[in-house]
């Protein structure tokens, strides 16, 4: 277990490096299909997931980010694996917790954009179950990442506050600006400590 949690590190002015990009790395290695990008590799090749976590820690990550990105109901429905939703999430959290405990790093649960959010919709059920599983999987904090909609990012933060059992949250935004036909993406991170 890490000796200092995320909030303690932030209060002490320390940097916290979170390596991510599991989806693209597994797609590059041929274990995920472009398009759906669902983390089915967690069940199909758990040793590879553990190994990639270890590689990221070796490269300098202070956090093992559970590979639950796109591990939500809507995405799994697209590939006919919705019935494995909880199993994928819990296995990803178990693997991440194991590596974090072995390496003395923090472990974070991971949520992402729902791909179906509209400003007048309510997608918090998708996020709620993932937040509850992150708590059950003993995450040190929860990352909600790569939201292009501020409304969905705020919904994620509120869901973490409501169901996260006091876990800190880090929310990242990737706003999209359309100029003519071109879309410009600018990623930045906003930390929100509960």
From TrEMBL:
Example of a GO MF term: methyltransferase activity
Pathway: Amino-acid biosynthesis; L-methionine biosynthesis via de novo pathway
Keyword Methyltransferase: yes
InterPro entries the UniProt entry points to: HCY_dom, HCY_dom_sf
Domain Hcy-binding: 4-194
PROSITE patterns recorded: HCY (PS50970)
Pfam family membership, one: S-methyl_trans
GO biological process: methylation
Keywords, ordered alphabetically: Methyltransferase, Transferase
Family matches, as PANTHER family: SLR1189 PROTEIN
Protein name from the UniProt record: Hcy-binding domain-containing protein
